[in-house]
Amino acid sequence: MKISFLFLLSFLVFCACDKEPTACIETSPSTTIEVFDNIKFKSCSENAFWYNWEVEEYQNGSQTFIFYNTEEVNYIYNDAGLLDVYLTVQSEKMKKEDFASIQITVNDVCYACTNGVNDSEICYSDYEDKQTFDNALANFGTAGFTCTKL
After folding, report:
1. Which of 93, 99, 89 is nearest to 17 (CA)?
2. Shared-domain flag, residues 27 and 79
3. For a tag site, which of 29, 60, 84, 86 has the least CB within 10 Å?
């Protein structure tokens, strides 16, 4: 009888120490950004010791998820769209978990360029990265085009 009481007592102490986590996500600057802008995802979770982020992304037209195991994540989206971010947090002993998700709106940035005769529109999402886009936009200026953000 003494052994089972001690076992039960130690089991209750072991389980009681593992508090229930509550998952929470903060974003900065907001949940609506433009392509190539930096966004920060930060856990505002309580009683969380382990973090598993899943950041939805489209690469070459295919959906993929990028995984992180840190309390906060800095991310840059290269494509426009509505994209999900998931956070799973676990308790210290990894016996309890909670889940949170948010949706990020990533807007494309486009410019209308004209030289009075020809018109063209260029968008961030048409280019591999911001530097390539910035070079293309500069080339329009060098060629005598005036470009205005749409």
Report:
1. 93
2. yes
3. 60
